[in-house]
Amino acid sequence: MAKYVYDFSEGDKDQKALLGGKGANLAEMTNLGLPVPPGFTITTEACREFLADEAEPAELHVQVTMALRQLEDSVGRRLGDLHEPLLVSVRSGARYSMPGMMDTVLNIGLNDASVKGLVKESGDERFAWDSYRRLLQMFGKTVLEIPGEVFSDALDEAKRKRNATSDLSLDVEDLKALVRTFKREIREHSGAEFPQHPREQLDLAIRAVFHSWNTERARLYRRRERIPQELGTAVNVCTMVFGNLGETSGTGVAFTRDPASGKIGAYGDYLSNAQGEDVVAGIRNTLSLDDLAQLDPPSHRELTKVMRRLETHYRDLCDVEFTIERGKLWMLQTRVGKRTAGAAFRIAAQLVDEQLITLDEALERVSGGQLAQLMFPQFDSGAARDLLTTGMAASPGAAVGRAVFDSSTAGEWAARGERVVLVRRETNPDDLEGMIAAEGILTARGGKTSHAAVVARGMGKTCVCGAEALEVDAIAKKAWVGGRAINEGDVISLDGSTGEIFAGELAVVPSPVEVYIEQGLNVAVQQVDEETAELVRAVDRLLSHADARRRLAVRSNADTAEDAARARKLGAEGIGLCRTEHMFLGDRRSLIEHVIVATDAAERQAALVALLPLQRQDFIELLDAMDGLPVTIRLLDPPLHEFLPDRTDLSVKVALAKERGETGPELDADVKVLAAVERLHESNPMLGLRGVRLGLLIPGLFALQIRAIVEAACSQLKQGKDPRVEIMVPLVGSVMELHLVRDEAQAIIAEVTAEQGVAMDVPIGTMIELPRAALTAHRIADAADFFSFGTNDLTQTTWGFSRDDVEAAVFAVYLAKGVFTISPFETIDADGVGRLVEIAVKEGRQTRPGLKMGVCGEHGGDPESIHFFHKVGLDYVSCSPFRVPVARLEAGRAAVAH
Amino acid sequence: MAKYVYDFSEGDKDQKALLGGKGANLAEMTNLGLPVPPGFTITTEACREFLADEAEPAELHVQVTMALRQLEDSVGRRLGDLHEPLLVSVRSGARYSMPGMMDTVLNIGLNDASVKGLVKESGDERFAWDSYRRLLQMFGKTVLEIPGEVFSDALDEAKRKRNATSDLSLDVEDLKALVRTFKREIREHSGAEFPQHPREQLDLAIRAVFHSWNTERARLYRRRERIPQELGTAVNVCTMVFGNLGETSGTGVAFTRDPASGKIGAYGDYLSNAQGEDVVAGIRNTLSLDDLAQLDPPSHRELTKVMRRLETHYRDLCDVEFTIERGKLWMLQTRVGKRTAGAAFRIAAQLVDEQLITLDEALERVSGGQLAQLMFPQFDSGAARDLLTTGMAASPGAAVGRAVFDSSTAGEWAARGERVVLVRRETNPDDLEGMIAAEGILTARGGKTSHAAVVARGMGKTCVCGAEALEVDAIAKKAWVGGRAINEGDVISLDGSTGEIFAGELAVVPSPVEVYIEQGLNVAVQQVDEETAELVRAVDRLLSHADARRRLAVRSNADTAEDAARARKLGAEGIGLCRTEHMFLGDRRSLIEHVIVATDAAERQAALVALLPLQRQDFIELLDAMDGLPVTIRLLDPPLHEFLPDRTDLSVKVALAKERGETGPELDADVKVLAAVERLHESNPMLGLRGVRLGLLIPGLFALQIRAIVEAACSQLKQGKDPRVEIMVPLVGSVMELHLVRDEAQAIIAEVTAEQGVAMDVPIGTMIELPRAALTAHRIADAADFFSFGTNDLTQTTWGFSRDDVEAAVFAVYLAKGVFTISPFETIDADGVGRLVEIAVKEGRQTRPGLKMGVCGEHGGDPESIHFFHKVGLDYVSCSPFRVPVARLEAGRAAVAH
Predict the structure, then answer these.
(1) Cross-chain CB nearest to B835 (options A687, A693, A775)
(2) Looking at chain B, which terminus has fewer C-beta neighbours within 10 angstroms, N or C?
(3) Is this complex scored with an ipTM above 0.85?
């Protein structure tokens, strides 16, 4: 027979799954000998069985009876007793905290008879009737699901009659009248009398708490917080204690340290002559703990002792709820407290100093997400705000600048020292210049993994995307949102952490943690206050420990020497992915266009030869910035039409020009380019002529790149540098493809090193970004010196999702319907994509033990994914420069955790 | 030490991998006591080692010496002997027959001295010098790689001088002069004298045979025939016997039955006073075996006896090469003979009748490919032909009709009784009407799995695609090929088995096998000759046996009642895939367009409601045609923009109309549709909003289809029919998607069956067509009553190949470079895609033992793939109607083989 009911003396803090967080901690405090009102917990298992069958498990009723009798015996009162009635609270308490999401009913046990017993026993008639009033109100709303306004309106009406603002102004007769009113409302709305039998009240309240697990609001909250839907909640039945028994009573919440700043010392709010919900409702001004020390020194002393005991016991910041009933302190709840990112780092370091936790444990108390928050500049929270609309928070940070609607204006204005925000319907590789020039990027279309979002994150640049309310007219250089126009030159402010878009300029607060990471501890702690300095030192201490502990190396994705230098400052130990396509944009676009539009081999070869010195110089600068560290360069990957204009736009342009009878070289050029666009047009370019297929189909293309890479490395070597270049082949699906490129590359390496008279080892590896590559990794390993998992593309093909197309429309629905708890482009889908990664790691190393493996998809900077990559045994992760510190921290945490 | 050399008496016919086909069979004949000239075989292993190291394995030389001495001892002659010289032939012989691909050198052992010995010994001076001449010619060409014309020109010149047409007219002096000429040419071209040392001749000839394995021609042949490149060839060294020692000598080839028709009785060609190469060269007219019986009754009797012995021993049609040297029969080669498709079936049935093989063995002697050949109508091979160009043979058959360039003309002309061939640059779903109306389809673009090819094969309609020389101007209703115009109405003929396109009308020969399959044995054997009747009966017998043996059920993909009825006639045991999107074309296009363009829920719902009765009627007809058999209906799969016009075309149209200042309702409608096109535009529709995503995003769409399906089934049930409908959800990647659709479907099923007052079980299953579906099949099985593998899409995502885009351009290069031996869209890629299928089968059945599984991709009709599906344990394959008999046969063969 399952045990569904645990007395508080039976459980402990590690039984959160069974007793919920609140129940487990109440049990823990009980066993520590702290003053907890007696009570018992009904398990989450009972809830799960109830929800599955829509009925209480058979044994539950009997077990509650037994627990209740034991409770009655221990406190010497009986539920519903006419003289000394036992009153209990019924509160939900799930494994993971879901504040305000579920239900509570207080004062169970009061009825028309026992309220009189409470009058006598408490000697406070007003208190007794107010307690009954509260029971009716909560029970009506929570258990009987009568709209809360029915009761609050009646209460307001009663106060209005008295010209009162506070409940305290109502007298006994007012409260008795309210009790009558509430009972009438209950009868009218529920079709039945308020249940006078205390056990019936209790059973209905328990059932209501079970039900509250499955409200739409709670489901939505869990989805957002990634809490599994099937856990269920526990129910805590606890003897009532009262903070509203006069001035020697009161209630409060407190933290063992400041959860906002992390400052040492207890911190809390106290309200005398009040019940818990009054504190939450914010009806009256609260007092500080120091005030309590003045008011009731013994209780304050005991509370301080209890909190110290809890912090020592839990070895972490705790928050507590307490009530003082006529001078007697009662602890109603405790838990490890939530805290801000800054507080998390400070407290973790403090607890190490206090020798309560080890540095390893301290690492588990902070997260990469918190570090990322600390690194972004933010808007001054005190400033006035004029919110225009809200989009998706695609890349955090705070950007202020003049709105511009095209890339070239962005470039020009930025060149003359203006700060600009690039506003586009959506972005494409053409916008890269503008994105580089801009402080921030705002798009009306596209999700968190749209081009704008991905590139912006890669640059560590603020981005808000998919602001659907925004209409962008790039031709008119204007945008509208809710009837308001944004003209070119108007100043706007983007909050990349919230997705908010403001009119005008908001003040930006710089982040000292970013200063530390980029410029070191000494610079960062100058000119900041001691609290901030403590924070920066805490970050330094934990990040250094993560570096010492982690097994994963952290590289960065970087396409330019500037990015590489920045990444290196941020702690990157190499480049995991250099996308060479970005080197074909800007001025060089016409050169690559010549390669594409070429109609014969000679014309193409000439265009390729013109690119060679430019590519070589790119690589020299990149290798220089990463001297002594590995640099993985990916050969050209995207379909060639990406370098050409849009097919529809160009078709319309040419058709209109012809219609107008225009002639001349511009039209001729457009017609020639259109022919190439048509020739290269593909219905699904993601699955088309790209990656290694380009290399095998277009003679000389990969050869050019390989030669440029090897010549650059030779040049560095001859200057006494230490270039460690690696060549990566994209989109391989069969080992034969890799063999063919490898043979070509090795011939070129031999040729160039012979020409240059140097000896050099250039590893040649492949992306694993197609399901087939993962499934045949044991063969591909034959031809690869390393694997780099391209989990973006692997996610696209494994799920059959084009992230550009599907994300915005489908993902919103899928997240709402619970198909995903998080986009698989954000956190790696361990069951599908992750399984392929595991297969490839295992079988690739069976063929070639010790084969070096890394990941260079967006997931390389995602905390949860980093833990996954650690577990499956990768050697490194590579992420955008800005995510490098996050990845370092999470890699350390992963090493500690697993 | 490896044994590289086997005497003919040491091997047997099962050692083909080591000794090659020719060597193994020579050994087998030797051991049967048949008259084989003594000799030995050098193994394929020796060849492989030679090719890997570019040098003979160390032990080979010694082993050849020993084998040669044994040979010399056994025949009592020595190589290069001045009196009785031993002459040997050196012939290649690989595991798989590669006719004419590799090298042969005869008369090794002759030199300036031994030729005189041969003169004396044979008593035939002309013969001896002619033999020397032949050695020089073959050695020069094959071993020394001197162009063959050098020798044949000199020979022709000598004949010209004599005014002779035959070699036989040349006398001894002519031949001696030719020997001198040939030796001079060899010296001049190779820079060295012809090697006089016989052993040197032998070693060089062996090496030349090894080399011949790797000629470009041979590599290409193997790629086409799917023979692995790494096998290597054996070399047979055999005592020379001479058919050119006068009128009592001769040489011939023979078959134990007729390989063209399968007729019982030996069949062959004989040439007296000739060597083997004279027969192949076709210089003189050959005699029949009956002529030989007149000419040399003892030899003919012995040959007949040998052939009977061979057929009994090999239990199959054998072909042989033989030589009669002065009245003595020598067998030079035998093997199981190649045969036509018709002969294969007839011979297999004959051998069963003769109790030489079992019916199971007979099944292994025929193939689905052969059956398919027998089913297609073909052009009369005797008719005159005017070839225009050749494209890809995409769907076999012989189609004759007037060229039309658009779908509506095709429909109109066909409606008035014209036969038409639809000629398009490429086809899209819009062309479906025209494709249905046409006899055949011809496209200028697209590969074997392009839309045109896939749909045509699905319809069993002749199709030639990717005829690159063809320029199609649909507007002008005209096409050009090599300067010739094809105007609308011109008659053309397409051969879908060869890809040839002819001007004018070619006569078509009907296939009696197709008549049999569609109309039964009795109809088919009427009015045909006895030989054809025997063929039809053989097909019937083997197909019936396949049906009895196979474990795989065979269903058909069919979207209409007509297709379903046809498939059923062809033996389909249900419908494995009904694509409902084809029901939204034609007249109903405007209705589905309303659904798509709808701007609010009410407008969309109204459009859906209008579709309901039409869909229901479709399903009623389909279920009626397949009454009593399972019918799997797939919910709407393609992206919605497929039902709308092309974005670029429409953009140009609207831009031009606006430029011209046009107004009116047509433009307004275009503008509205263009807005929808823009809204639905996706960069990669294959990976976009389609399949189950549509169902979850567009309220009411799947509900409409499910209701139509269930109402149709109820209607059938109430009429006493036996509808067995199954609902299939496309593009599922996560079990949650399937749960959501399943919940909706079950609610509708419950509602409709309650309305109609019937009880019915409607299984709900899913396509497994995404890698993630396969990888999480153990979860998806929780919500699926069946799995149907969509291996087309699964191949696209696993490889990251869009078949529409990539096939033509990439596959040609990939096949040439050996990345593929065959397109993975044609035969399932067992290592990648197949591995996913295996995972899903195994893990799906772990969750739900006995889960029904089938395949409905193109691979369901491909012989090699069918064997794969049998092995992994699927329950059925589903293919296009025309492939059903092929699939039945191959499923039977798979059951016998595995």
Answers:
(1) A775
(2) N
(3) no
